């Protein structure tokens, strides 16, 4: 419908810091003061109306991994769940994110296939091999505003420093997914009691904190703007807090599942709980929530990683890490509100305006965002039939959740 009237809805607008029950008029996905006539009238009693969301980390699996998901399947899943802007790491297979021209083509395809605004992080090094800086000037020309080496290791620290200097000169943000590979090695789960009892190779918290500490020193020396994505530990929150207090231009995000799930879920070799960085302890979960509440962590992301069923069928350590997250994102967000972690407006800000600021696209987002109608009380079951994503790989499968997107108002350009 091109024009809609929503009566008695609770509007949550982080730009205007507005939290009120109103009657709202939307035309072509944009809010207007009034309409002479409307195509549809909706009773919004008990519902929330919020802007479409911005996701700082989601893998769409195309090109090269269409057995797990496509721009069409995952883009439609994002849009159906209220996420209109999706930012994806540069580690498709094959790597195309070191070529500005190819990146532009993927952005166009994402809109044509699913009507989402895709933003691709450029490769920090050529082919993500960690040896030579990528053509960052060409990537910026192709539309990239940030670069990263994703989860690939660097050949040495000198390469890191040279790429940070290069990015700083072009005013590009460098995105880190912090993990010291020499410490993490072949680990797959949090270093804790459950992993020890099951004999699984572990990834200690130090793998994350040593990487963050090292990169923070390089960030300070080069003056580059940097973002730390997918924090998983309380100790990491402390390091980011110290960096911000020092005045470094750093931001951070956390995946929604890290705010709810812990390493207890890997008990019984549950491969659906195999993610990287791993699910950590209850104490880490509490500290991540506190870091988000205080503003040390700027935003929440989905860390959506769809996988085919076969990717989770091997022995735990040999399964592919990843969790399909678009379909449970809003339900887990409203759960944070019900648990008193955030007010509704605070949660909305962490998934809309805050990630838009991190991505340096708040003006673009404000112009392109539509609106999402959410019923925070609707109870439903997450199962294969209810999921939009091609990937059904989530430990929440079969569970009853509360909070669901009712409608998305964001018409094509």
Structural overview:
It is built from 13 helices and 18 strands. The protein is α/β, with parallel strands linked by helices and 413 residues long. The chain has one domain (48-409): Alpha-Beta Barrel (TIM Barrel), CATH 3.20.20.140. The strands form four sheets. Strands 1, 2, 3, 4, 5, 17 and 18 form a seven-stranded mixed β-sheet that branches. A six-stranded parallel β-sheet has the order 9-10-11-14-15-16. It has a three-stranded parallel β-sheet with strand order 6-7-8. Helix 1 (71-80) crosses helix 2, helix 7 (206-222) runs parallel beside helix 8 (234-245) and helix 8 runs parallel beside helix 9 (282-294). The radius of gyration is 21 Å and the shape is globular.
């Amino acid at each position: 419908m091109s024009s809609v009237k929503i009566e008695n809805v609770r509007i949550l607008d982080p730009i205007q810091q507005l939290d009120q029950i109103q009657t709202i008029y939307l035309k072509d996905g944009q809010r207007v003061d009034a309409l002479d006539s409307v195509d549809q009238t909706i009773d919004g009693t008990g519902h929330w109306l919020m802007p479409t969301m911005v996701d700082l980390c989601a893998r769409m699996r195309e090109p090269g991994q269409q057995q797990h998901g496509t721009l069409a399947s995952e883009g439609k899943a994002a849009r159906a769940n209220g996420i209109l802007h999706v930012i994806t790491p540069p580690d498709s297979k094959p790597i195309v994110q070191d070529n500005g021209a190819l990146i532009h083509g993927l952005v166009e395809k994402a809109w044509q296939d699913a009507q989402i605004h895709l933003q691709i992080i450029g490769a920090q090094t050529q082919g993500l091999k960690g040896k030579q800086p990528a053509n960052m000037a060409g990537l910026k020309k192709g539309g990239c505003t940030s670069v990263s080496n994703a989860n690939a290791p660097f050949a040495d620290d000198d390469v890191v420093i040279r790429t940070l200097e290069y990015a700083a000169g072009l005013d590009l943000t460098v995105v880190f997914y912090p993990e010291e590979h020499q410490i993490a090695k072949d680990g797959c789960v949090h270093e804790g009691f459950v992993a020890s009892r099951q004999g699984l190779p572990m990834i200690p918290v130090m793998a994350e904190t040593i990487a963050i500490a090292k990169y923070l020193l390089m960030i300070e020396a080069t003056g580059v703007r940097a973002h730390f994505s997918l924090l998983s530990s309380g100790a990491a929150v402390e390091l980011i807090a110290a960096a911000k207090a020092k005045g470094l231009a750093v931001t951070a995000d956390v995946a929604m599942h890290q705010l709810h799930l812990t390493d207890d879920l890997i008990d019984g070799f549950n491969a659906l709980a195999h993610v990287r960085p791993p699910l950590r302890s209850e104490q880490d979960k509490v500290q991540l929530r506190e870091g988000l509440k205080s503003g040390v962590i700027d935003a929440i992301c989905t860390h959506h990683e769809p996988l085919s069923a076969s990717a989770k069928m091997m022995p735990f350590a040999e399964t592919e890490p990843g969790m399909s997250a678009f379909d449970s994102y809003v339900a887990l967000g409203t759960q944070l509100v019900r648990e008193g972690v955030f007010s509704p407006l605070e949660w909305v800000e962490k998934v809309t305006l805050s990630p838009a600021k991190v991505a340096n696209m708040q003006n673009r987002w404000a112009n392109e965002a539509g609106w999402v109608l959410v019923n925070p009380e609707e109870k439903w079951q997450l199962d294969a039939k209810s999921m939009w994503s091609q990937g059904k790989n989530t430990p929440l499968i079969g569970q009853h959740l509360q909070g669901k997107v009712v409608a998305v108002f964001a018409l094509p350009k």
